[in-house]
Request: fold
Amino acid sequence: MPIAVISTGGTIASTDDSGGDASPELTGSDLVDAVPGLGDIAEIVTEDFSNVPSPHFTVKQMFDLAERVRAYDEDPSIDGVVITQGTDILEESAYFVDCCYGGETPVVFTGAMRNPTLASPDGPGNMLASVRTAKSDGARGLGALVVFNDRVAAARDVTKMNSMNPDTFRSPEFGPLASVDEDRVRWQRRPGERTPDYAPDPAALDNEVHALTATADMSDHGIRAAADAPALCLAATGAGHIPPGIIPALEDLREAGVPIIATTRCPEGRLARRTYDFPGSEATLRRLDCHFSDRNLQKTRIETIVALAADSLDEAFIRPD
Ligand code: ASP
Reply:
């Protein structure tokens, strides 16, 4: 049965054909035609969703993408879905889809770090490994996956680690779910718990949700700028710690009813609940009735946007007391 390839743009679809530096131009069928032998392993249908650099992608487009994934899941003639995207925000759209999709049909995001006009472009190999993964029974019901450099990762774990190197998508702490060895997908572990299957109201998706990283002796300007925001996502230092100078601004936000969703700025680990008790420790976050997130800052923001639009913030994140 066919695999649906949805192309959205990014480096994998970029050429310098129109002069100057590369920008997205290739269609889904161009991408598929560039992979030797792909037709021998699967029948492919293509859909051109967009052709943009991924930093141009909006949360509304992420919602529409999730809708397309759901439609393919309901189509019994489709075996799996591969989505090609620019790598810059790929982890955010993959996580958005993960948050809104509870189906069984495999969904794989991929892309490239070197466009097809450069020496050793990585797009064709990533496409081949993605189609193999989308055809694998082991990928069924796992939510959104990301396949890069022959590694299969869960959307909730994976992050872009290197701005230029093709070996960029890694899952800190927990590692990949599988690796693609020649024509075999070797599953090594199951992902942790699934994200709730949210049903957001598309009209309520609000990109005004702020995201801020705590830094040493920071000013409170960024926090005060969130006074009218639907929520503030805050990556605290270490196990959930902030400079004491920003506590009054956070108190003001809470008094104004702005939810604060805290996570750690460390690439591995999560917020402590009851290890420290000093001004600005996780005890302060608890006193402020913050929500605690286990995802990185960019994915915490995506889940906050989706959960607010589904009226499910308390289902999404715990508030330890
Ligand atoms: N450098 C990016 C990429 O890998 C550009 C983008 O995200 O669209 O595709």
Remarks:
- The chain has two domains: 3-187, 206-316.
